[in-house]
Amino acid sequence: MAPFEALYGRRCRSPLFWSDVGERRTLGPEILLEAEEKVIVVRRHLLTAESRQRSYADTSRRDLEFQVLERVRPVAYRIALPPRLAGIHDVFHVSALRRYVFDPSHMIDFTPLGIGENLRYEERQVRILAHETKELRNRVIPYVKVQLSNYEEREATWEPETVMRESYPDLFDAPC
Question: PANTHER family from the xrefs (predicted)?
Answer without folding.
Answer: CHROMO DOMAIN-CONTAINING PROTEIN
